[in-house]
Amino acid sequence: MAPMGIRLSPLGIAVFCLLGVGVIYHLYAGVLSSRFASFRQKSTVDLRDLLALSIEAAELGGREVKRIREDNTLEEKSKGKTKEGANDMLTMGDLNSHRKMFYLIKNTYPHIQVNSEEHDNAEGEATIWTRNIPKDILEKVSEGKEVSAERITVWIDPLDATQEYTENLRKYVTTMVCVAVDGDPVIGVIHKPFTGYTAWGFVGEGASVAPRASYNTNSPKVIVSRSHSGTVKKFAQTAFGNNTEIIPAGGAGYKVLALLDPKDEEHEKADIYIHVTFIKKWDICAGDAILKSVGGQMTTLKGDQINYSGSEGNTGGLLASIKTDHKSLVKRLPNLEEN
């Protein structure tokens, strides 16, 4: 008797094929997934485009900040205490601005790392970049500059100076975006929602803001945080003498602009910016980039450059200056342990 053969119906053949495909997929899904992930990570980003997008994001978030303050719908609450013992406030201005800014950037460049001061569980905004590049950027940055997406970290501060925002001290409030490449601050944007003023800088390419004509570092005006101005006053006067003038102010973005010439009559002017305690990187990255783009410096109190990758905070304090011998300023600073 001839051996009995196995015959499959067309349906059986289809099922067999599907099972085979499933087994192959199961075996190679991990490999394919990693290959696709590797391919995606090799995508590049044009930094000139990212500068324009950052400005649009800061201004979009700023409109939310302004609207909620003017409507008096802040719904403020405390997130806890800062290291200086002040309330770390959160408002609807912070959250709404975060959603607009974060998702505008992520919708445009899904594969770059975006770190924001705020986090929420809201569904992603459908906001899309207009792809408009402002005229002043085109004039100052003549060509695009492609960088691998995996080298980029974007830091956003949806509302800097929240405490002052709740007190209706509007001049201190800013929204900020910073782009770091390999940890170095390259692009910075600081936007003032209540005046509509926007400052930007692109290291090695240009900036929308400029230094003032001169700075006094013999008896300087030192701008510091309102929350611990007493501590910094003693520190600064030990370094620069009893004639040192201390300017308490809110918001790191505001303090950096005080070192420049923002063409704003209500904006105080300072020669040096000092911070002696822990500070988050989304507070200072944009200002660092803008200062570097016009020849300034922002370092730790020991003179070390601040790396904008990895952890969220900078523990080494902060010294910012422009058109001065920054290293000589560092040498004049006392040890914090002595104060």
Automatic annotation (TrEMBL):
It is found in: Membrane. Coiled coil: none annotated. It is a single-pass membrane protein. Residues 71-86 have a biased composition (Basic and acidic residues). Residues 71-90 are annotated as: Disordered. Its cofactor is Mg(2+). Belongs to the inositol monophosphatase superfamily. This is inositol-phosphate phosphatase. It comes from Triplophysa rosa (Cave loach).
